[in-house]
Amino acid sequence: MDLECDQTGRTPLVVAFALGSDASTGAALVAVTEAFPRGNPLLAARWGAVVRNAAWSALLQLALDHAAERNLTPGGLSLAGGQFHLTAASPLKAA
Question: Is residue 59 part of a domain?
Answer without folding.
Answer: yes
